[in-house]
Amino acid sequence: MFQHVFAEMNHMLEEIVKHYPTAQETQKQILIQRWNMLKAMSDGIIEEWLSFEDKMSSFREHTVLPPMFPLGDTPEMGMESFVRGQGYFKLLMYRQSIQQFSQIVYDYPDSLLARMYIAMAHLHLEETSEALEHFQWILPLAEHKKLKAMIYNALGCIQAKLADTGKAQEYFTLSLQNDPTLPDPLINLQVCNQNRGQLQYGSQLISLI
């Protein structure tokens, strides 16, 4: 639900970056005021969201919620870095999310969930090599079909971005075989077949917990 807000904020920022170098002094002051407004909005959204995530985490710690699938012993989910990393991911602030989850991987190198967030964040940043490295590390260790489906779908998106449509379709098919209820690979198959549209990935990541 935040996409339209961030789209507008990004548009305003792009306009500032575009016009500031050649603007007259008066216009520069106006652009600076707009930048300050965007900065205040960004800081406010982040603080409110992190506060919200803290409350969500507190509720989760004291409530037995049925997970989408068993993740086993995941003490890293109680870390502040996890809460912040997930919050940044939801806010589409992928670089900051990677920084937070990288701290978790340092302490818990076998954390599949932290690595999934890192991989998806890299993919959203169009850093396909980094994303591929993490997905290939996770895949042999993934036991649950929903997790495998998400990884295969992401691998398909990487191949589609590399213009290997045939390989992409193979991965999307594997994704559907592991979890026919996952909507992303079906959409992505249509994108490949019609050669238009936007690839979908990571939409179910939050549901893993």
TrEMBL record:
This is Uncharacterized protein.
